[in-house]
Amino acid sequence: MTQHTQMGEIESVKAVSELYSPVSGTVTERNERAIGSPELVNDGPYESGWMLKISLNDASELEKLMTAEQYEAFLASQDK
Questions:
Q1: Most buried by CB count within 10 Å: which residue of 3, 9, 17, 67?
Q2: Model confidence over 37-78: pLDDT tens digits?
Q3: What is d(CA 69, CA 31) in angstroms, rounded to the nearest whole number?
């Protein structure tokens, strides 16, 4: 998997959205529980709703990502 390439899709009641990989690496584990109960992604993305575990190819790619706080601020700015 390569950073910023499509890694899958997620379906909601109204739409199907593409998911893009935040980092390059190899998937080492996927959360079967979230696949069977996708509401976990919304209910607890940092706990039971995680999707994949990835072995990183380049840890420096993490520095290019937003923090949770930065992402929340970005989303808030989009609502205006």
A1: 3
A2: 988 988 998 899 999 999 999 999 999 999 999 999 999 999
A3: 24
44 located within any domain: yes
- In sequence order, the 6+-apart residues with CB closer than 8 A to the CB of 29 are 52, 53
Which of 61, 40, 63, 60 shows the shortest CA–CA distance to 50? 40
Strand partners, 80: none
pLDDT in the model for residue 55? 97
pLDDT for the residue numbered 80: 67
Which comes out higher in pLDDT, residue 70 or 13?
70
Q: Is residue 1 part of a domain?
A: no
Domain that holds residue 39: 6-78
> What does the block give as tokens for 25?
């690496």
Query: Cβ neighbours of residue 47 under 8 Å, at least 6 residues apart?
Result: none
Q: Domain tally for the chain? A: 1
